[in-house]
Amino acid sequence: MKLSDQRICVTGGSGFLGSFLVETLRDRGCRQIFVPRRAEYDLTTAAGVERLLAEARPQVLFHLAAVVGGIGANRENPGRFFYENAIMGIQLLEQARLSAVEKTIVVGTICAYPKFTPVPFREDDLWNGYPEETNAPYGVAKKALLVQCQSYRAQYGMNAIYLLPVNLYGPRDNFDLRSSHVIPALIRKFLEARQSGAAEAVCWGDGSPTREFLFVRDAAEGLALAAERYDGADPVNLGSGEEISIADLSGRIARECGYQGRIVWDTSQPNGQPRRRLDTSRALERFGFRAQTPLADGLRETVAWYRG
User: Which of the residues are catalytic?
Assistant: First the structure.
């Protein structure tokens, strides 16, 4: 598919990943990009979804809009995270089918994987257990959209693909400590500790869990490549293949921020899933995606952006 010829709608297009996707699409020559704002189109309502598709008339629909957050936000809002993410996706896919949208790209979440998935996470392991408890409502809501994509393809011939990006980071991320993910939270903590002259900075858990991170610009490229080249029913991981412990990550970020104090671990707070690293071979095989940004380079750019 030549994206530059298409009318494109990007839900969540003004958000973190969405803003980079819009830039990536524009770099490909796309000029007909519609980005709905929640104030005008409430996608948790049927009326908002119907009006969006009637006015945007997309040939290609990227569904990135989501209610997301770190471990703390997930623990505080399990009902909201389940309902709003499920209802947005379910209604949007149904209306896309009724509106004969030519291709729909749904962005899922790594939180959909079972808590004790063998490492590296392979797409075929998605249904071999329940997700980690702190983010299970969000993960299950998003995983239900995979079922919808596959069942609509089987019954209606709908071209809907489903992608599973690993933890994202980069400029424009959410740095609010009440709802942010681990990298922006650590950057903010260490910069503030340095500025205040604090002798120590407190981090959640014990530092032992491992995570894989994908730079947001790479993720946007992966979405665009999938839209251009992939039309299959199978879910596809998007990741970097680089695994790091939270303790090592914290040390790297502290050094990048110029913080030289102690890092103290608050073990009364949850660790989350024990390990995360993806098998990214399917993305390479199906549509030629490989992450380009090393973690060190991405962290340097993200810290510099937040400082600015």
Answer: 138
